[in-house]
Design goal:
Layout: H1 9-40, H2 47-50, H3 53-70, H4 80-94, H5 107-139, H6 142-172, H7 186-209, H8 215-222, H9 226-230, H10 235-240, H11 244-274, E1 280-281, E2 284-285, H12 290-316, H13 323-340, H14 350-373, H15 381-388, H16 390-409, H17 420-437
Antiparallel strand pairs: 1-2
Length: 449
C-alpha cells in the first residue's frame, strides 16, 4: 500500500475552508432555533421537541452520504458533489426559516412552516458537513491528520464565531431586534441571509481548489483491491464489525452531545431569566419583550465567547502528552462552565462560563475523529464516519425527546416558572460522566474485516 504524500498547509486549508461557511449556517441554527420557535409561540416545555429534527435528519442523512459517496465517482470528485448540493439547498432554506412568522399564518401554521424549513435546513447542512470529514480521511496521511482536523476545528470555531455574533452585530448596526408578537426580528433574518451568501462562496472556493483522488489512485493509497470494490457490504454488517474504538468513543460522545443539546435548547431562556430579568406573562417568559430578545442577541455573544475559548484551548491540547488526560480535563472544564451559569447573573461574568464550555467543545471537535480515523483503513471510511455520526445524533435525539419531561420535574423558580438554568446544570453533570468515560476508550487499530 502506497503512503499518502504530505500536503502543503495551503492544500490542507483549502480542503476544509468550505467548512467555515457551513459552520456559520450551523451556528445560526444552534443559537436561534429556540429563539425563533419561542417567538412564534412555543411553550418552554415543548422547545426540546423542535430540536429532534436536526439530529434525526443527521442520523439518517450522514450514513447514507457516507455509503453513497464511497461508491461514487464523477469528474467533480467523490465527496464534493454531495457537499455542493447540500450547501445549495441550505442556502435556499436559510432564506425561508426566519420568515416563518412573516406570512400572516396562524401560530400552528407558522410552527409547521418553521419545522419543515428546519428539517430541510438540517438535512442540507448535514449533507454539506460530512464530506469535509471524509475528505480528510481520504486524502491526508496519518502523520498530518491531527493537523488537518485541527485546521478544520479552527475553521469550525471561526465560522461559529461569525454566525453567533451576526444578530448582535446587526442589532448594533441599527437593524431592529424586536418585532411584532409572533414575528422574527429583522436582525435575525439578515443574519441568515448574509450567512447564506458566505456559505455558498466558501463552498465554491473549496470545490474549485480541491481535486479528489481518482478511484485507482485512492485504491493504491488505501490498500483496496479490485475485488474489494466489487464487494457489497451492508451498513449493519459494518456496524457489527466496527472496531472497539467506535463504541468506546461513542459512549463519551453520548454524554457530551446530550449536554450540548441542552445548552442549545435552554440557554436563551436561562439567560433571559437569570441575567436579563425578562418579564413574565401568563406564567412564562414574555418572548416579545425587549429583554427576552436582548437576551437572544447576548446568547450569540456568549456562544461566540465559547468559540474563542475553543480556538484558544485547541492550541493547548496538542501540548498534552496523554490524549486521554487532555480529553477528560477538557470535558471537566466544560462541566464547570455549565454548572457555574446557575450561580452567575452578571451577563459579562458569564464570559468565564462559556469560555470554559469552549474547552469541552474543542476536544469534542478534534479528538473523537482523530482517534477513530486512526483506527480505520481507507476501506468504507465514508460509511464508518457516517455511522459514527450516530454517536452525535442519537444522544441529541434522546435529550430532545426527554428534555421537556426533565424540565417539568425540576423545581420551579421563585417566580413560579420552569427553571431552564437547572437544565444547564444537568448538562454539566453529563460532561462529568463523559470525562469519566474517556478512560475506557480503546485506541488500538483494528482490522475492519
Amino acid at each position: 500500500m502506497k503512503i499518502k504524500p504530505d500536503l502543503s498547509f495551503v492544500k490542507l486549508f483549502n480542503l476544509s475552508f468550505g467548512f467555515f461557511g457551513v459552520q456559520i449556517a450551523y451556528a445560526l441554527q444552534s443559537a436561534n432555533v429556540s429563539r425563533i420557535f419561542a417567538t412564534l409561540g412555543a411553550d418552554p416545555h415543548d422547545l426540546s421537541f423542535f430540536w429532534i429534527l436536526p439530529p434525526l435528519m443527521g442520523i439518517i442523512v450522514q450514513p447514507l452520504v457516507g455509503k453513497w459517496s464511497d461508491n461514487t465517482w464523477t469528474r467533480f470528485g467523490r465527496r464534493i458533489p454531495y457537499l455542493f448540493i447540500g450547501a445549495l439547498v441550505a442556502v435556499l432554506v436559510m432564506c425561508m426559516l426566519p420568515n416563518a412568522g412573516s406570512f400572516g399564518l396562524s401560530v400552528g401554521a407558522a410552527m409547521i412552516f418553521g419545522l419543515v424549513s428546519l428539517m430541510f435546513l438540517d438535512t442540507s447542512i448535514n449533507m454539506a458537513m460530512q464530506p469535509f470529514k471524509m475528505m480528510v480521511g481520504d486524502m491526508v496521511n496519518e502523520k498530518q491528520k491531527g493537523l488537518a482536523y485541527s485546521i478544520q476545528s479552527f475553521l469550525c470555531n471561526a465560522g461559529s464565531l461569525v454566525g453567533y455574533l451576526f444578530p448582535y452585530i446587526f442589532t448594533a448596526l441599527g437593524v431592529a431586534s424586536v418585532a411584532a408578537a409572533g414575528e422574527i426580528p429583522d436582525s435575525v433574518k439578515w443574519s441568515f441571509y448574509v450567512g447564506a451568501i458566505i456559505l455558498i462562496l466558501c463552498v465554491i472556493y473549496t470545490t474549485s481548489t480541491v481535486k479528489e483522488m481518482p478511484p485507482k489512485e485512492y485504491a493504491e493509497y488505501h490498500g483496496i483491491k479490485e475485488e474489494d470494490n466489487e464487494e457489497k457490504v451492508s451498513m449493519l454488517k459494518l456496524l457489527v464489525k466496527a472496531p472497539k474504538t467506535f463504541w468506546t468513543v461513542g459512549l463519551v460522545q453520548f454524554f457530551c452531545w446530550a449536554a450540548f443539546m441542552y445548552m442549545w435548547t435552554y440557554t436563551n431562556g436561562a439567560i433571559a431569566e437569570g441575567a436579563f430579568n425578562a418579564p413574565i406573562v401568563n406564567g412564562a417568559l414574555d418572548t416579545a419583550s425587549k429583554e427576552y430578545q436582548a437576551a437572544g442577541d447576548w446568547v450569540g455573544v456568549l456562544f461566540a465567547v465559547q468559540a474563542v475559548g475553543s480556538v484558544l484551548w485547541a492550541v493547548v491540547l496538542p501540548m498534552f502528552s496523554n490524549r486521554k488526560v487532555a480529553y477528560s480535563l477538557s470535558l471537566l472544564l466544560g462541566a464547570a462552565g455549565f454548572i457555574s451559569t446557575y450561580f452567575i447573573t452578571d451577563q459579562y461574568m458569564l464570559f468565564i462560563s462559556y469560555a470554559l464550555i469552549g474547552c469541552a467543545w474543542a476536544a469534542m471537535l478534534a479528538m473523537p475523529f482523530t482517534i477513530l480515523t486512526n483506527s480505520l483503513s481507507g476501506k468504507h471510511m465514508g460509511t464508518y464516519l457516517g455511522l459514527f455520526n450516530g454517536t452525535i445524533c442519537l444522544p441529541q435525539i434522546v435529550a430532545a425527546v426527554t428534555g421537556g419531561l426533565v424540565l417539568g420535574c425540576l423545581p420551579l423558580t421563585e417566580s413560579g416558572i420552569a427553571s431552564q438554568n437547572l437544565m444547564l446544570v444537568l448538562a454539566g453533570v453529563f460532561l462529568i460522566l463523559g470525562a469519566l468515560s474517556v478512560f475506557i476508550v480503546k485506541e488500538k487499530k483494528q482490522d475492519e474485516e
